[in-house]
Write a structure and sequence with these properties.
With 178 residues, the protein is mainly alpha-helical. It is built from five helices and four strands; from the N terminus they run H-E-H-H-H-E-E-E-H.
Amino acid sequence: MRRAGIILLGVFMLAVSTHTASAGEAAKIGVIDQQAVMDRSKAGKGALENAKNYSMARQKIINADEKELEDLKQALEDPDSKLSETAKQERREQFGSKLEAYERRLQDFNLEIQKKQRDMVAEFSKKIADAAQAVAQKEGYLAILDKGDDSLFRIVLYHQPALDVTDLVVKELDRRSN
């Protein structure tokens, strides 16, 4: 993966040098931090808040299920219980079926939340790309590169701080969100 990124960057730099040699002008290149755009823009903050609220709503349901299971378990383990053996068996079966339903719901919610997060990131990445393109066209940038992320894959290993156009992209995104 890193090798492919280096090759891609090499091809990009070759294209930039060809463009500048033929046009006789310096290539203007910018760099953005997509995570910073997400964290600092109004739309990004809203998207993160929506994702958080969605997860919290699901967590409340899971917490209620856990409380119900805990209550059932305590009732089953109560030494002072005056339930008949048949009633205890029915409660154990009820507990087992509720535990299975809880585990299924937990798994379904986790998958649902992961999908919602992936969809949100994909949608927001498109908005960031559109805002970056608008900034590039307005400001005369030949390209705007994403810095990348150390935990995944960092494309830009070094850049001069003056090349960072993250704030311009945040402003453009906020302008489009109004």
